[in-house]
Amino acid sequence: MMKELRIKNILAGLFTSALCFGLSMASYPDSVNVASRSSGLQGCRATTTSVRFRTLTMRGPKSMVTYRRLPITASDLASVTTASNNIAASDVVQCARMSALANMTAFAFDGTCTAYQFNRKLCSCLGGEKVIYVANSSVSYGPPATVPFSTAPYINTTVENIVFKKYQLVNFFSDVLSQDLQSFDGYAVQNPQYYYVLPREDGFNAAPVYYLDVASCVTDTPCGMPVLVNTIWPTYYILNECGKTIQLSPQNRGDKFLVYSHPGLGCKAFPDGPTYNCNVTFTSPTTLFVLYAGYFSGADGSCDGYTLGLERILHGTSENVNLCTDEWRDIFDSVTITLRGTAAAKTFKAGFSFYMSY
Predict the structure, then answer these.
(1) Domain end: 194, 229, 264, which one?
(2) Distances (CA, A) of 124 to 127, 141, 222, 292, 306
(3) 312-344: per-residue pLDDT in tens?
(4) pLDDT band with cut points at 50, 70 and 90 for residue 24
(5) How confident is the model at residue 29 (pLDDT cuts 50, 70, 90)?
(6) In 10 A of CB 326, how many CB atoms?
(7) Are residues 45 and 81 in the same domain?
(8) Closest by alpha carbon to 71, among 218, 219, 222?
């Protein structure tokens, strides 16, 4: 990281440059020329370097303020700005000093100094054509926050002549779910409604929809990872439906229902903590196929203190399945999913899901 220079050192360098060669224009609007003097016959040999600062630290009304250089798009800047002021300043250093004294969140210098107040923190990984300096206290270095799916921005994108909506994910457990990814070709291209598509360096991967709760994992910042969405199926969450009987109503062949253990499967870990005693029953007027997919049990076949199972009823016959030890897929008229107990070691668990199809 570039060294933070005090104003007096910068001005001294500029003064030396002016004496020896005359001041030259900086290479960028938000840079200054700094002279590095070397020995010579007259003691006045110097080279002038154009410096763009990664950070600038200035004294504010109550404390020192460190501004960090960030790129941003004009639209993102407009969306977070609540107030802006033009400030008289001759260079980026003076602009920083005046902005700090005015207690402003950020500033930009492109020959003119503009200071800003923001309504929220900016993600540290933003990009764009505009350069601003943002107070370090107003930069977020953690993962971006999720937003409701209905308000999340998206871009219409076409891949393999298929129209998708491109959203940004806050996270994806790629290390856990990588074995369930496949190349986006063949069956996946023919049936994109059953997959979420993840760009990779040399093409695209396809993730079955039951491994990722996209609707609970999107953000409104560009700091996430892109995901392409063709279809969102009706979705339920076990932890939100405890004690309920849910009547599914498939209308057409190929209709799907997704049941996730918790909101955020695939991007947020299963929430250990309380003692669960949860039963959820799903019924259907027509026989449905159901597939269980889980990252909930350990290598020893236990669920870290929980019991996870289901009771399936088909044509009046009941069957009980231990989902901590068994992989399972079958058809049903009614299925009751049961989660009980308390986590013993609170080891990481991605969660589990059920994929129901007419």
Answers:
(1) 229
(2) 9, 6, 10, 38, 39
(3) 999 999 999 999 887 789 999 999 999 999 998
(4) very low
(5) low
(6) 12
(7) no
(8) 222
Q: Where does the pLDDT of residue 163 fall: very low under 50, low under 70, confident under 90, or very high at 90 and above?
A: very high
Q: Where a domain ends, among 20, 36, 52?
A: 52
